[in-house]
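Step 1: inspect the first sequence and its tokens.
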Amino acid sequence: MPRSTNNVAAKKRRKKILDSAKGYFGGKSKLYRTAKLAVEKSGLYAYRDRKVRKREFRKLWIVRINAAVRANGLSYSKFINGLAKSNIQLNRKSLAYLAMNDKQAFDKICEQVKSSLAN
């Protein structure tokens, strides 16, 4: 019996890898073996950095809140403690947005926090 190959599936498999390696530098986009390694590695980086992105944004929000709070004479930790005491349930993302874009609203929140810390 003659040997049969599955050329259609093999070509499709290789084409899928090379298509996802499009735009990579040099042989990483042209040669199957190196492209396969590059695509695997980029997939690992993409998976890992989807988690890291969330951490980075949280850090950015905290830095922005801290800068705005210090302008109002508080520290970040005291501000967060005061938010809990005054029962204001805003997350860090929205607080950072207010600190950057709506200074008056953020100042009112700071005043509420200061009054709750004084009590």
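Step 2: inspect the second sequence and its tokens, then contrast the two.
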Amino acid sequence: MSISVRFVYLTGIKGDIFSNARLIGSWDIHSRYSEEWTSVPMKQGIGEDGCQCFSAIVKFNDSELGRQFRWGVVIDGPAGKDLWGILNEINDHRSQERYRAFILQSDTEEERYYLTHCRRLGANKYHSTKKSKLGIRVAVWAPNAQNVEVVFGSQKTGYIADDGTGIDQSFSPLKMSRGRDGVWETKASSELADFASFDHKPYMFRITKKGGNVAYRTDLYSRCQIGSGKWDPNGEAYCGDIKNLDGSKSCSVVG
């Protein structure tokens, strides 16, 4: 019996910037663990973010269950050929190694690497291969949160206080689910299938912390913010001119 694992390398960059991507991993030609890494060509495509991506499928023998495998990607790009495509170091302060690792389980289906998070985090257009319309997907890194939702604000106030003042009650909050890497994101659904219906709407993240305390936070990856001033309401209700709001604390705007 074999376990098929799909490896995806997402560039987050539009255009054919890279080519000749190869998956490199700590397995042999029979997909069994090996200290001598094997190379597998990757197929080029367009990801859900509308950007260039590469993928490959490896079928592991179930005798390897519980084994840790390491992998990376070699790619050709503007800076030259045969470049190591993993930029993040492993989570070990004593090492400068750059590779991804996972433990093979019976339910392991996919391993992903994001070269850049600019089109992963924030409110981004979602490209579905099944529909012609552009949807929307919202994501935020909040590893210590107990729950995260997207809530919509008003153009008049431009801010949502910690007691909820400033929420536009005509729009329901968007639920988010936590991934294993601490990233919370909305899931594709019928209500999120039309990006145009959310375009230019103010929003913030409603974050439930440990202990149940709730706070509203701006989206650090948004492309547009309300306010160009210096005033930080610091969680209190705001009734002043939205132009005076500190843009790093106010509502983000979809767009």
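Step 3: confirm your contrast with the notes below.
The CA atoms of residues 120 and 156 lie 29 Å apart. The mean pLDDT is 94.
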